[in-house]
Amino acid sequence: MTDSNLTDSPDETGYETSVPPEESPAECPYCGRPLESERLLVLHEGLDHWERLDDDRREAFQEAYVGEGDDLRTFRLKMLALLVVVYFAFLFVYSYVMEDPFSSTNAALLLVGCWRGVR
């Protein structure tokens, strides 16, 4: 990344982490890997250094892991909604291009029927 606000900081471990110039990356105390945030450090420690963690760090990892799962679930639902919107957009465009007057009406009725079924 060659942004003026970010600096690339390669280190002896071979990892490259982009951080603002006035900040330093969070560094793993076990392997020295630089990470962009404390949340990523907690996830890294839990996945790669579980046996070395104390109970507080393990609990912090579990909370971060659950939060990450919630974020992924939200992302998947948004992508599913986008896919449905794109599918129906293509369906309407196809019915318009085919110039079949009943085709677009059927697609609209199908969409209304699906909408009523959801509510």
Description:
With 119 residues, the chain is mainly alpha-helical. 61% of the residues lie in helices and 10% in strands. The protein has helices at residues 38-48, 55-97, 101-118, and strands at 7-10, 16-19, 26-27, 34-35. It has a two-stranded antiparallel ribbon with strand order 1-2. Strand 3 and strand 4 (34-35) form a beta hairpin. Helix 1 (38-48) crosses helix 2 (55-97) and helix 2 (55-97) packs antiparallel against helix 3 (101-118). It starts with 6 loop residues before the first strand and ends with a helix. Mean pLDDT is 78; it is low at 1-11.
Fill in the keyword field for this structure.
single chain; 119 residues; mainly alpha; two-stranded antiparallel sheet; 3 helices; 61% helix; elongated
Largest sheet: 2 strands, antiparallel
Gap between N and C termini: 46 Å
- The helix/strand series, from N terminus to C terminus, equals EEEEHHH
Number of extended strands: 4
**Helix-strand makeup class:** mainly alpha
Share in helix: 55-70%
Widest sheet, order of strands: 1-2
Count of discrete alpha- or pi-helical segments spanning 4 or more residues: 3
Average pLDDT reading: 78
Low-pLDDT stretches are 1-11
Q: What is the molecular shape? A: elongated
Radius of gyration: 24 Å
Strand content: 5-15%
